[in-house]
Specification:
alpha+beta, 8% strand, Glutaredoxin, globular, 2 domains, Glutathione S-transferase Yfyf (Class Pi), Chain A, domain 2
């Protein structure tokens, strides 16, 4: 059986959502947030981050985007991603890469500024720059969603859930919802999704 190491309020949200949307059983292991994790956890997550997925064969992988894409490939009937031959596949890959290479790092810079400067006095500047980058990146997504319901194709994919998670982490959430109407439109619908609404009870993303 799959084992998913996660914790509330983390990137484990989208990995848990992938399992639940696919209807695939998994064992959930909640890992406490600590600067001194157990050696066994560091062995599978050297950066002390969640989520981590242990596969039925015992192999483990980190990175939420990798976990989501692997589950989409292994369980294609779940519709977590467009099929390889579908025209929407290109958009799916683009947005998954964009969100993990541009938006997610900006989120981390805001909430963990000490990781990005050894100067304590620079933390405010790191956060300010992170918000500016988040606004720039969400504007790109917002423009792409004009006249479209979903990021990739004509149905929801795990990319849309990923966007919901990241948008929920915007440090100026109320302003962001006003500024990026197309992103907010997509997220509004997903917040009412029965699976995601139930999952939010433990993660409190919104």
């Amino acid at each position: 059986m799959y084992k998913l190491y996660t914790r509330p309020g983390s990137g484990g949200f989208v990995a848990e959502a992938a399992f639940l949307l696919a209807g695939e059983p998994f064992e959930q292991i909640n890992v406490p947030k600590t600067d001194k994790p157990e050696a066994a956890f560091l062995a599978i997550s050297p950066l002390n981050q969640v989520p981590v997925l242990s596969l039925p064969d015992g192999h483990t992988i980190t990175e939420s985007v990798a976990i989501c894409m692997l589950l989409a490939e292994r369980h294609p009937k779940a519709g977590l991603a467009p099929q390889d031959s579908a025209p929407a596949r290109a958009d799916f890959l683009r947005w998954m890469a964009f969100m993990t290479s541009a938006i997610y790092p900006a989120v981390l810079r805001f909430y963990y500024p000490h990781r990005y400067s050894a100067d304590d006095g620079a933390k405010a500047g790191v956060r300010k720059a992170a918000i500016a980058e988040l606004d720039r990146d969400f504007a790109v997504v917002d423009n792409a969603l004009a006249g479209r319901e979903w990021l990739a194709g004509d149905r929801m994919t795990i990319a849309d859930v990923y966007l919901l998670m990241l948008f929920s982490w915007h440090p100026e959430a109320d302003r962001a919802r006003q500024a990026f109407a197309n992103v907010e439109r997509l997220c509004t619908g997903l917040r009412d999704h029965p699976v995601l609404a139930k999952l939010n009870a433990s993660h409190e993303m919104w």
